[in-house]
């Protein structure tokens, strides 16, 4: 009987040790994967392996540095091979990654594009950043690359460009461009399986609605003492002028709400980890305001297609930088500026 009691005690002690170790492991995993804030500051859980980058990750980066492609593009409509390449895509290019021994029609690039060092994050709305807006250039949207159309305070969509829309999620009154809506629904459903709900807040907007939103914001800054030129420039850092917004093309979704603290939510963490799989990128990162000329918007996610979303994220570039490196920007355009105040 004494032997049995000792044996039982031993089993109980061993079970407790197993449970304790398991709990510690679960706690470690949770601690390492959940974004948070400490004393009002962003918590850095991981850092990038790129020695030049100042980016802080709240979820573990999934792409090693330097970024490289590991699969060929889905279609010859792709105009570049990887960041930094200026050669046009041809079917003769068999693969994209460095080290490949397949024949090329031109010399393959053996090094990845190195993004510029961000010299610091500043408040895009500071008065020293005011620059009068020039009349935007109307772009020509290639149908084979419709998902890469760039509109901002320098580029506007054609006034007669047709945009067909559909509910972003079945039953929602928030719409997106039809092909983008299909991908958003897929992403929404995938997130829901993880207990995350990416509620559509603002998707496609008509020209008139965008015009009204922009004019209201302009009037707000005029009421704060700015002249009309200054007010229009400051308003454009928050709400694009009509025809210059990705919402007008139905390519972007403001998810859940336009809340500055959205980056602290589980929804944001899920998007950072999975949105690229469905073709969406964070359009206006905090450390790229000096290029995008738009304030940090963690809620604004833009569709560019899964292949390009993964490539853009891997390159640590914003859309303007990536398209410039790819030779896909309308010209002229100023990117890679390390100081504010350039319009």
Fold and architecture overview:
The chain is of the alpha+beta class and about 350 residues long. The chain has a domain at about 125-325: 2-Layer Sandwich (Muramoyl-pentapeptide Carboxypeptidase, domain 2), CATH 3.30.1380.10. Helix content is about 30%, strand content about 10%. It has helices at about 1-35, 180-195, 205-225, 230-235, 245-250, 265-275, 290, 305-315, 320-325, and strands at about 35-40, 40, 45, 55, 135-140, 155, 165, 175, 200, 250-255, 280-285, 295-305. The strands form 5 sheets. It has a 4-stranded antiparallel beta sheet with strand order 9-10-12-11. The chain has a two-stranded antiparallel ribbon with strand order 1-2. Strands 3-4 form a two-stranded antiparallel ribbon. Strand 1 (about 35-40) and strand 2 (about 40) form a beta hairpin. It is globular. It starts with a helix and ends in a 17-residue tail after the last helix.
């Amino acid at each position: 009987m004494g032997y049995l009691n000792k044996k039982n005690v031993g089993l109980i002690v061993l079970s407790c040790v197993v449970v304790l170790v398991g709990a510690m492991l679960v706690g470690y995993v949770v601690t390492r994967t959940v974004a948070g804030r400490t004393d009002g500051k962003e918590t850095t859980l991981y850092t990038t392996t790129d020695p030049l980058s100042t980016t802080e990750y709240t979820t573990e980066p999934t792409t090693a540095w330097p970024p490289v492609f590991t699969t060929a593009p889905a279609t010859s409509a792709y105009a570049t091979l990887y960041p930094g390449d200026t050669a046009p895509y041809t079917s003769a290019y068999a693969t994209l990654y460095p080290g490949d021994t397949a024949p090329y029609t031109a010399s393959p690039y053996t090094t990845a594009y190195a993004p510029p060092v961000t010299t610091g994050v500043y408040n895009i709305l500071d008065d020293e950043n005011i620059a009068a807006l020039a009349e935007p250039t109307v772009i020509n949207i290639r149908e084979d690359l419709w998902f890469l159309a760039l509109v901002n305070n320098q580029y506007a969509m054609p006034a007669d460009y047709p945009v067909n829309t559909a509910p972003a999620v079945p039953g929602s009154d928030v719409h997106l461009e039809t092909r983008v809506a299909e991908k958003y629904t897929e992403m929404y459903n995938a997130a829901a399986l993880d207990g995350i709900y990416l509620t559509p807040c603002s998707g496609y907007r008509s020209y008139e609605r965008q015009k009204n939103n922009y004019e209201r914001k302009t009037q707000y800054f005029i009421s704060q003492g700015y002249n009309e030129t200054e007010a229009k420039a400051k308003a454009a850092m928050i709400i694009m002028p009509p025809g210059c917004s990705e919402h007008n093309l139905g390519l972007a979704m403001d998810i859940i709400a336009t809340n500055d603290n959205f980056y602290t939510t589980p929804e944001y963490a899920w998007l950072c980890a999975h949105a690229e799989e469905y073709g969406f990128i964070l359009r206006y990162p905090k450390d790229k305001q000096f290029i995008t000329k738009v304030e940090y918007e963690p809620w604004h996610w833009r569709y560019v297609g899964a292949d390009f979303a993964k490539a853009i994220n891997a390159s640590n570039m914003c859309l303007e930088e990536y398209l410039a490196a790819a030779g896909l920007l309308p010209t002229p355009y100023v990117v890679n500026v390390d100081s504010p105040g350039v319009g």
